[in-house]
Amino acid sequence: MNCAICNIEMKEYECHNPVPLSINREDEVCKECNYFVTASRIHLIDVHPHDEVIFAGMLTGILKTAFALKRAEEQHAKMLQEEEE
Ligand SMILES: [Zn+2]
After folding, report:
1. Which residues pair with 8 in a beta bridge?
2. What is the 84 CA–ligand 1 centroid distance (Å)?
3. Is the dihedral of CA 76, 83, 8, 32 positive or negative?
4. How far is the CA of 17 from the centre of ligand 1 (A)?
5. What is the pTM of this model?
6. I want to staple 67 with a disulfide (CB 3.0 to 4.6 A). Which of 6, 19, 24, 27 is the partner?
7. CA 24 to ligand 1 centroid distance, Å
8. Which of 6, 57, 43, 44 is nearest to 28 (CA)?
9. How far apart are the C-alpha atoms of 62 and 59, rounded to whole Å?
10. Cα 56 to ligand 1 centre (Å)
11. Which of 52, 57, 21 lies closest to 37 in space, CA to CA?
């Protein structure tokens, strides 16, 4: 199974509940992304449920994009390194 936020592969015991960052019942997040989940729960505690869905959706989109950019940069660096060898 892959993390719903950073997309790394996880073992069963590494999976965490992603609510409120994802409300899809099949989604799980890794140990690292679970810190984003916990922080979101703290920050969104007094937010109206309707607004929580909007904030959480936006935050999850930002995090997913950030991790995709990180992966792309790492792949590019690896490619350059392989070219040099
Ligand atoms: Zn993750």
Report:
1. none
2. 31
3. negative
4. 11
5. 0.86
6. 6
7. 15
8. 6
9. 5
10. 15
11. 21
